[in-house]
Fold each of these.
Amino acid sequence: MDRIAGIINLDHEQDLLEELTYFRCGAAVPFAGRYRMIDFTLSNMTNSRIESIAVFTRSKYRSLMDHLEQGKAWDLDRKRGGLFILPPDWNDPTDISRGDLQHFHNNIDYVHRSYGDYMLITGSQHICNIDYQDVLAAHKQSDADVTLIYKRVEMVQPEHQLASKLSIDEHNRVTDIHNNQKSNYVYMDMYLVKKSYLLELIEEGIAHGYAHLFNEAIKAKVNTTHVHAYEYTGVHALVNSVESYFRNSRSLLNPQEHDLLFKQESPVYTKVMNEAPSKYLQSSNVHNTLVANGCVIAGDVEDSILFRGVHVGKGAVIKNSVILQNCVIEPNAVLENVIMDKDCTISEGRMLIGATEKPFVLAKRKVM
């Protein structure tokens, strides 16, 4: 049986979520009430029987390391394989590599020692629920050198403009990788490649002075190698801006969208906090809201997402907002179209109102 080893490459991901990434990398941003962005990638891998996963980090990874710990939540705290968090290490005076190829070069031992026959390289910004064993089957059937995973979106959103797009022929072969903003074939920053071929690509990319494994070493070979396209047809969200974070978070208030992402047969795992159930006081009025554990609600909450440990005072009103962990909204405060990071406090009677297209964002530990 062919095995897959995983690499979550955060080296080239930009932190574009403004206040939400002041103190953390994008992969550690909370999402969907009790999860982090990276939870979806890790869960997809472990549900696909990938037992060895490396995380390439570059900056602001303290919060990420605190969340991941030893990988116990994803059953990755094991003697063989498991979770490897690999910050940058540039102590080799003979190293001529740069960009994310430098990260691959400095952690080449992980690739060599991995028991996987194939390597899956992903980012963290594409939220989905995918079985990578299906991707492996398609890769082997097509006899491809590299298989890229894409999503055909019905409507191109602003966040898709920053993503790479694919041109595909009738045999599902990739003929071009580009940034045509009108194209709806969105590359999901995920590809599968045989380990031996990945080692060749890394060596060749460094020899040519490339800085980005995919954009230069792989993209340049589209016309000379067999690059296969695998279409993912499930629920999908690309989160690379505050606006896309806000819209895709609130889309989970649709029960159908929520159930498609959080499937019983392929659950999403996260760090367990062992908090008490949420408490709804008699004065509370909660409608169409996703509420995590440990909340105490005495006010009105509508069309919103409350993370763990949020306290809503009597007479407070929250509409169309995302309130992160341990925030306190004091009595008679009003919030509408707001994203509030962890440990913030809104004083009694304070009013914060943003726009649906441009929510008001409050950075971590702010008091207003």
Amino acid sequence: MKTWSEVAEIQPLASKIITNSIKKDRISHAYLIQGERGTGKESIGLLLAKVLFCTHRTDVEPCQECNECKRIDSGNHPDLHWIEPDGQSIKKEQIEHLQKEFTYSGLESSQKVYVIKGADTLTTNAANRILKFLEEPSKKTTAIMMTENSQSIISTIRSRCQVIDLQPLNPQAFQKQLLDSGMSERNSILMSAMTNNLDDAIALNGDEWFAQSRKLMVQLIEMFSKNPDEVFLFIHNHWMPHFKDRKQQEQGLDLLMLAFKDILYFHIGREEAMVVFAKDDEKVEGLVMFFSQEKLLAILNKLLDAKRKLKQNVNPTLVMEQLTVQIQR
């Protein structure tokens, strides 16, 4: 999204709030942009930064062509500072470095902007240091914070920001974007269930690793019903070597969750909601005979629990072994 009119197509309320403040020259000293991944947080943050620095702005729209806009796009603007989590969190030292940078005047203007991605990962010390910035705002300093988890932002920070709530993307609109990009209808349905980020969806669709992931997921589910004695061997010899890091392991669990939901949807006559399997897939009929509705609901709860354990850094092999035992009960 390069313009506010494009933002308005996806996030009309957010676009209206911000562009109204630009027109009235009442841009807030701090924004907290909150929404799910892929809803446009970074695009909105970049646009807002361009509005503040652009030298040839037309009404609310930055020109995209001036030196300021181009340097923001390339990540080389000296007065725009980006902070992202270092590992699992944003640390006190990162904020200390930012504070030091802000003791100097702007290199090319008096305007300074800092963008914090994953603001919910600020450690307690880092959050307290950011709070000092927000409590003593400079007229020429703008904070843009972004989060997927607004509940983790401390209330004292929230109260000093203009909160911009982004709405979840409309699944049908997103699927249309994927179809327009050349993706097949079946794949567009699956990719829109896996992510609401267009670039990620296109990348997954062409990824051989993900294609193999889908095959392993189907093999594992069929194995539960046909060859239960071989499941543990399959987990150790095929599943874990393929799903290596935490992101991949979470995607593996997401695929399993979508597939088990499909079986449940077939059970209750909601075939139109199926994502992984086609409604005329013979595999589904066999799986419906094996997994009862009650069992499927229990499995979906265990999959959610497994995802929570992964986020808590429980050993992934142990997580899959426990999940396997729970599914086989």
